């Protein structure tokens, strides 16, 4: 993650029973922030001092540390103490968004949806006027549209703008000096996010820039079916990411297809766009695959399919884990899709969708329209209505 996308600084925090010590490069700490930290009882020490401080701890000291985020060097300095390996409680507490955070996350999604709408209308106009732009220029324009939204602080990660074959490169990022020109033909994959004071966004849409062929529609629809399967999942408490990941892959598996990345990752609240511990993954050795979901966890739902040398397809919304209230007094959970932008109906093979899948898609598009329409001008509202029509 780039430093200008994630609001962190290099540091260590040593929490003791009566005090906490923050180790960082003191020259990078603004005086007003230092005063605030010290007022809160935080002791500021030079970044390099942590080694001598740990080595000087009495041998009878008990130290709790997270082996997943503690370096071998620091671990070696604690061998004379009683070390207890345990996941960081801070990590797990951050993962569960409280009602206030959830409220503001939904607000961030509205802002993001408006910015995306204006970006895609802008792109359509450029293509119609034959004023073609590059992938890099599109990424810069998206950042500019997001910047008009209140509370925007910057990208949550550098935008992935993959036109045609570049979309098949899962973590492709366009460079100003080497970026494909987007033409009114083929498929465009756009994976991007913003950091707002309200929260962090991460959304992917794949759009057709010309009438898609049948194979493209097949692949897109299989990915969409997997996305819907996960979005509509209802599951007992204690269910882990590895179990749910299968739901998103099953439609592709039935056709001998797959994708080489996890289906989703945790997302922070104006923090990391990739945040532990939960997620959807096939690997039983990672926290993403083995963490049980709890109400308040915000996670990406992003199955995909990538045809090397041709195109990439990914449909991503952020989903908030909530209680499944339709089951009286039963300990079941489900997801609320909180990202707000239409899914391209041009790419959908409607006859492959079940009635339940069509109902989800129509309900989702109605939600998108209802949430965004009050924030739009009349012409923007008409554009959105056309893209939220029922299947």
Radius of gyration: 23 Å
For the largest beta-sheet, the strand count, sense and barrel status come to:
4 strands, antiparallel
Give the full name of the CATH homologous superfamily of the largest domain. Answer: Creatinase/methionine aminopeptidase superfamily
Helix content: 25-40%
Characterize the quaternary organization of these chains.
Answer: single chain
Name of the CATH first level of the largest domain: Alpha Beta
Averaged pLDDT: 96
Our estimate of the beta-strand percent is 15-25%
Could you give the order of the helices and strands?
A: EEHEHEHEHHHEEEEEEHEHEEHEEEEEHH
CATH fold name of the largest domain, please? Creatine Amidinohydrolase
Report how far the terminal alpha carbons are from each other. Answer: 38 Å
Provide the spatial order of strands within the biggest beta sheet: 12-19-18-15
């Amino acid at each position: 993650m780039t430093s200008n996308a994630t609001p962190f600084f290099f540091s260590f925090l040593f929490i003791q029973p009566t005090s906490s010590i923050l180790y960082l490069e003191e020259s990078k700490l603004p005086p007003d922030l230092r005063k605030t930290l010290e007022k809160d009882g935080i002791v500021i020490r030079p970044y390099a001092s942590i080694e001598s401080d740990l080595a000087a701890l009495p041998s009878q000291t008990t130290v709790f540390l997270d082996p997943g985020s503690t370096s071998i060097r620091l671990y070696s300095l604690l061998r004379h103490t009683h070390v207890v390996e345990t996941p960081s409680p801070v990590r797990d507490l951050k993962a569960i968004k409280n009602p206030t955070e959830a409220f503001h996350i939904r607000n961030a999604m509205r802002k993001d949806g408006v910015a995306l709408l204006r970006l895609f209308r802008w792109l359509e106009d450029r293509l119609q006027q034959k004023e073609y732009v590059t992938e890099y220029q599109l990424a810069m324009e998206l950042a500019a549209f997001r910047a008009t939204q209140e509370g925007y602080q910057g990208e949550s990660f550098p935008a992935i703008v993959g036109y045609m074959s570049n979309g098949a490169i899962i973590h492709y990022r366009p460079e100003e000096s080497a970026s494909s020109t987007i033409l009114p033909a083929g498929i465009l994959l756009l994976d991007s996010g913003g950091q707002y004071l309200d929260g962090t966004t991460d959304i992917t849409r794949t759009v057709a820039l010309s009438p898609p062929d049948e194979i493209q529609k097949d692949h897109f629809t299989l990915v969409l079916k997997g996305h819907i399967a996960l979005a509509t999942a209802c599951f007992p408490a204690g269910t882990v990411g590895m179990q749910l990941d299968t739901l998103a892959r099953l439609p592709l598996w039935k056709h001998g297809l797959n994708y080489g990345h996890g289906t989703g990752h945790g997302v922070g609240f104006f923090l990391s766009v990739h945040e532990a511990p939960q997620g959807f993954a096939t690997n039983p050795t990672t926290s993403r695959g083995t963490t049980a979901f709890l109400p308040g966890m915000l996670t990406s739902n992003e199955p995909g399919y990538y045809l090397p040398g041709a195109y990439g397809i990914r449909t991503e919304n952020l989903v908030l884990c909530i209680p499944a209230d339709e089951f009286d007094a039963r300990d079941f959970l489900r997801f609320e899709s909180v990202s707000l932008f239409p899914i391209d109906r041009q790419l959908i093979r409607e006859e492959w969708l079940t009635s339940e899948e069509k109902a989800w898609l129509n309900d989702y598009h109605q939600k998108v329209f209802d949430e965004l329409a009050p924030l739009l001008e009349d012409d923007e509202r008409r554009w959105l209505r056309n893209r939220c029509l029922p299947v």
